[in-house]
Amino acid sequence: MNIFRSFTGRAYVLAAVLPLLAGLLSACDVDSADSTTAVVSDTDGTIYNFAGLYLPTGTNTEFLVYPFNRQSGVKLTWIRLLQYGNVLEAYDNAGKSWDGSISSITDGNASFNLRGQTTAGAAVEIAGALHYTNQNSTMDAAWIEPGFSGSIFAQAAVASPAINAPESKVTLNGTSTTISLDDTVKLNASGGTSYRWSVTPTTYGSLAHTGNYSTNAYTRTSGTADNSATITVTSGSESDSWDLDFN
Predict the structure, then answer these.
(1) N or C end: fewer C-beta atoms under 10 angstroms in the chain?
(2) Long-range contacts of the stretch 154-157 (C-beta < 8 A, 24+)
């Protein structure tokens, strides 16, 4: 990305993308009841947090919105972005607050929007992209207010991404959590593609089989109320267990 782009180049880009941005913004549901619990992750499970203090960069190092003299109200020099899942909040040097969201993310590049007002009371929409690289995020976005469309090109230091470890999908359930002498508890595994069974310890009973079946059964043949057994089913790298207390 060339950070020394001319205003003429930016104007052509804005003219092309503003109709698309308007459609995207009108369709974006930033008030979704589920939005605060969403996790912003890439297709490989990498979680990104774009929160930070965004300052002008490139040829413009004083004002946030370009061209400098067109924004209404107090001219912005920075905006601090806060992120909660895919929900965005922000505040700026003029004391105004902003709300918005991240709609998608691919390879560390997030599409986002913010809505707020200038100190002159003009409604503003900021829409564009956040690009993550080496603990830095670049905000490349359009500034849209009545009678004026500008651009923002700013950077912030941000946290390193984290890896969203997938939860185990294998689940093991039994017909009881207790077992008496000479009784049998039936077991059912789900969520895997193939299964391997084991029991610990092997002293007090046995499984009907240890092969690739989604159902199984454990029969207790010895032991006292001081003992117990744990049955484990494994599918690939995932596993789940079922504990049995002896009566």
Answers:
(1) N
(2) 154/54, 154/55, 154/56, 154/57, 154/64, 154/78, 154/79, 155/54, 155/55, 155/57, 156/50, 156/52, 156/53, 156/54, 156/55, 156/81, 157/52, 157/53
